[in-house]
Amino acid sequence: MAMARIGAAATLPTATAESWEWQLRARCRGMDSAMFFHPEGERGPTRAWRIRTAKALCAQCPVIEQCRQHAVDIGEQYGIWGGTSESERYRDGRPVRRMAH
């Protein structure tokens, strides 16, 4: 995967057809992103329901592993990606570099 340098601290993958093609097969493609990213102030049962619903959709997605690894690789700090929440991708404030399958 080609990499682009962003400042001194971060390296992100460049947008090439090979590295983003998996998104075309994502089960969430074309859906409202609000299912995967919590609105300001969302708490309690409403948030828990949204997270469960998003993860259930991810569980049936043919590209769940690519999505999960993409979120880890780019250090995605927000939302449900590949069936994982922000806290599942970050442990002790540091990104989990490789997710278990």
Brief digest:
Helices cover 35% and strands 12% of the residues. It has helices at 17-20, 44-59, 64-74, 86-89, and strands at 3-6, 10-13, 90-91, 94-95.
Describe the 3D structure.
The chain has 101 residues and is an alpha+beta fold. It has a domain of 69 residues. 35% of the residues lie in helices and 12% in strands. It starts with a strand and ends in a 6-residue tail after the last strand.
Layout of strands and helices, then pairs:
Layout: E1 3-6, E2 10-13, H1 17-20, H2 44-59, H3 64-74, H4 86-89, E3 90-91, E4 94-95
Antiparallel strand pairs: 1-2, 3-4
Features:
101 residues; alpha+beta; two-stranded antiparallel ribbon; globular; 4 strands; disordered N terminus
Q: What overall form do the CA principal axes indicate?
A: globular
Low-confidence stretches: 1-8
Q: How is the biggest beta sheet arranged? A: 2 strands, antiparallel
Using the CA coordinates, give the radius of gyration: 14 Å
Please report the total strand number as a whole number. 4
Helical coverage, percent range: 25-40%
Percentage of residues in strands: 5-15%
Total of helices? 4
Structural class: alpha+beta
Q: Return the average pLDDT rounded to an integer.
A: 82
Termini separation comes to: 21 Å
| Order of helix and strand elements from N to C terminus | EEHHHHEE
Identify the strand order in the major beta sheet: 1-2
